[in-house]
Each structure stands twice: as structure tokens, then as C-alpha cells.
Amino acid sequence: MLAPERHELILRSLRRHGRLRVAELAAELGVSAITVRRDLAELDSAGLLRRVHGGAVGTSPAAASPRQGSQLTVGIVVPSSTFYYTDVIRGAEAMADRYGARLVLGVSGYDVAVEQERLEKVLGIGVAGLLLSTALGDDHAAELGRTLDAIDVPVVLMERAFGFPHVQREYDHVRTDHAYGAMLALRHLASLGHRRIGINLNASVTAYWLRKGIAEAADTLGVELFVSPVALPARGEDPTTLAQLDAFLGECQSHGARAVLVHSDEHAARLIERAMEHGLRIPEDLAVIAYNDETAAMAVVPLTAVCPPKLTLGETACELLLRKLKSTPTHAPATQHLSLLPELRVRASCGAAPIDANPRSAVPRID
Description:
The chain is built from twelve helices and 15 strands. Helix 2 (about 20-30) crosses helix 3 and helix 4 runs parallel beside helix 11. Strands 5-4-6-7-8-14 form a six-stranded parallel sheet, sandwiched between helices. The chain has a six-stranded mixed sheet with strand order 10-9-11-12-13-15, with helices on both faces. The chain folds into three domains: about 5-65, Winged helix-like DNA-binding domain superfamily/Winged helix DNA-binding domain (Arc Repressor Mutant, subunit A, Orthogonal Bundle), CATH 1.10.10; about 65-175 and about 310-345, Response regulator (Rossmann fold), CATH 3.40.50.2300; about 180-305 and about 345-360, Response regulator (Rossmann fold, 3-Layer(aba) Sandwich). Helix 6 (about 140-150) links the parallel strand 6 (about 130) and strand 7 (about 155-160). The protein is elongated and about 80 Å long. By secondary structure, it is an alpha/beta fold. Keywords: DNA-binding, Transcription, Transcription regulation. This is Substrate-binding domain-containing protein.
């Protein structure tokens, strides 16, 4: 069956029922769901219907509320609306304003079940497209493949990068090159003369990419690295945090490390306080770099920090989605996989103090 024939049957069915579902249309027309989605996209572009999650509705005023007249509405679902994602949301919102579009926000709280509920609610109002940062990281792609492939509107992933064979389609994504961020921090420490460096990461999605950068840095920079075997809690108020920081300082002493990379700012700030209580000077006895740069400048000793481009990430992802939504099917932009580079912001916690020839003897013992 040729496309014009399918289009006529689709519009006839829409006039009868008022709403269409992709799965039912695929069965009725004897074609794949992908073909139906393509047909709906072409008919939507021609103004003959409006695509919504799972299918399409007519273009009558009663069905047009999610667009608020001519205003395009897109969804954004993120794990949190605070800390890291505050700037991501702000960036997306600023870009949506430039395009005259409206954002609808869903927050999962890093809970997969809640995320599914938020996705259903956001998609259920008929958004034209979706910005998504899932609760799970890149190493859990297989668990998310079916959910992603069932979404019937354009999706741009933020800080996640899922591909074949875990998902059937290729998705646009915009992510921070956190592996480069780790390399940036360790390169700076090596430039100051540090050859033994401790690493402490919290239990987060970002740690997956930081470990990749750390492994590469060890070979490239010719430094001796050790990664603490215990992941710090995602939030610093966990009662075990203090004991873990003390243990990490002990590990630094054992390895003769006078420089550390700590993820995230909150943990790095507490590590500095704890180190000073033990008589260590910052940065003379212990140079510290934090990862994230949300509150790093407000630490007792302002923290040198790797700063991901959070605002730019939100702007870029939203623009990528809106350009796709405003294009015609025949002139749709190519799928893009974009990596943004973080920057290093140097502050007092990581100065260029001379390094002892025998660093193991210079590190105060943590008892």
C-alpha cells in the first residue's frame, strides 16, 4: 500500500473515532509501527492531525489544549529539580522561551517506578517532544530500551547515551564528557607535581564515566592512582559519611597521596574540614579537587572544581529537540550525539605548593 493510500485511510479512521493509536493502526493497515509513526509525522507536519503519545488526535480547538493555541509544548523528565539539574532545567527553559515553546516538568527522584509514572503523565497531555534524563545510567540501557522505544514523540536524552542493541532506534543525546572532566582534574594535579593521587567517588550515575576517565589518565599521565573501594553516599548527610572520609584520609596516608579528586562538592568540602581537624594544611599537605562545582566556592577553603556545562547542556538539548519538531519530515535534522566539555575552575584548595621528594613521610598520620 502506497503512502498516500495509507494517509487517506488514517484520516478516515480519525474522522470516525476522533483518536488513533499506533498499535491499532499498524494492525489495521498491515504495516510496522515505525511506518505508522512516519505517516503520522507527515500528516502532523501538514496540519491534518496532531501527534500525541501513542497515536494522534484531530486538530479541532478542543484537542489543541497542550499546544495552547500555536504554542508548542515539550516535556522534560529529570531525576531531580535541585543541585545538578537546576541549571539543566533553567537552560532548557530559556531555550524554550526563545522558540516560543512551553516546558512541562516531571521529576523522578531517582526512582525508576516514579519515573515511569512521570513519563506517562507528561506524555499523556500530548507533548510534541520529550527531553529525558533517566534515573538509571548508561550501564542500565537494557532495562530502559523498551520504555524508550515505546515513546511515540521525538526524544532527546540528556546526560545519558543509549544505543543499539539496547534500543531499536538511535536517539539524539547531549551529555557531558565526564571522562574528560576526570582527566582534566588529574592533569592539573600532575602539572603541580603530584604523582600519587587518591580518588573518592559517590554512588551516582556520573561515577560510571569518571572511572573511565580515571583509568585513561593513569596511563596517559604516568601517575599512580588509587580509587577508594567504598563509594561515598549520594548525599552527605548519611551517618556513614564521616567514617568513610576518615578512612579515605587514612588511605591517602598509606599510599603517600597528597592530592585527591572527590565527587562531589559536598563530600570534598567535608573532607577538607575533616583533614584540617587532623592537622593537615590545605593545599600544602593535601590538594583537593571537587567534581560538579555547585557549592565548591563556598567551602571553608574554596575548592578547585571541575564544572560540567549544565546550563549549556539544557539549552543545547532543548534546541536540538525544537529544531527537530519545527522541521518537515523530509528535512529533519540528522540524529546527533553531542558531548560537551567541562571546565576546571582553580581555587585555593589546589595551589602550586612545592611537592616533597619523600611525600610518604610528609603526610600526617590519621589515627
